[in-house]
Amino acid sequence: MAANNLDKFNIENVKRKATEMRIRMVRMVECARSGHLAPALSCADIVATLFFNIMNFDSKNYKDEARDRFVLSGGHKALALYTALSLKGLLSEEQLNTYCKFNSIFGGHPDASKIPGVEISTGSLGHGLPIGIGMALAGKLSNKNFKVYVLMGDGELIEGSNWEAAFSAKQYRLDNLIGIIDKNGLCADGATNIVMDVEPLKEKWSSFGWMVKEVNGHDVKELTEIFNNIPVQAGKPTMIIANTVKGKGISFMENRYEWHNKVPDDEQFKLAYKELQEVE
Prior knowledge:
- By secondary structure, this protein is α/β, with parallel strands linked by helices.
- The protein has helices at about 10-30, 35-55, 80-85, 95, 130-140, 160-170, 190-195, 200-205, 220-230, 265-280, and strands at about 70, 150-155, 175-185, 185, 190, 210-215, 240-245.
- The chain has one domain: 3-Layer(aba) Sandwich (Rossmann fold).
- The strands form two sheets. It has a five-stranded parallel beta sheet, with helices on both faces. Strands 4-5 form a two-stranded antiparallel sheet.
- The longest helix has 25 residues, at about 10-30.
- The radius of gyration is 18 Å and the shape is globular.
């Protein structure tokens, strides 16, 4: 974790990283004419905060046993992870531009056997939290102090494996486990409260024995403050409900479920770059 990570310089640096991640995501999708862009845009600020202001993760020693672990449970949001790893120096931008092309290491979902810095191959929804619990439990049993961060989507919580896993985290007192829900209210088929209502999330996770905090998932300072205060309570896992906007940063994508895996046309790509560059 960066020293004085609430300093204005550090907060602004993370914001710049998040914007650069979004620009690189757009470029990757433009090259590939494929990809889940809008969901990755939704979680960019969360991923940037973790990788550039919170986690103990050294790109020069990314297999260090003492490192914090990041599990991208919603593997279709791989663009966010790829671009963060690129900005950490593990991957080149030239490599990123092979995304979803023949023989590329960068598929639509992350492959841990090919991509440095990816902890686990993900794609099938609902698997990330159970895997993260195993990692956190291994840390406890081996007396290591690393934390495990698992990023999930709210639509993903339809999967029952998440709720079975929730019991285990409480049972084993995994206060080194942090779940993060990228709650943008939309999934591939529409609004989550219509497709399968998962609310009330705060009350549900609390009833499973987790400490629950809500946050603006696009406010880097607020995210940093919450991550700085984990564990919220000793002996209990933490779940952060991060309220976000699907397609964040690109006006015609924001809060539109049909952009879940839709690819912009040439004019829309131009507009996307213009809007994101204006943020810089």
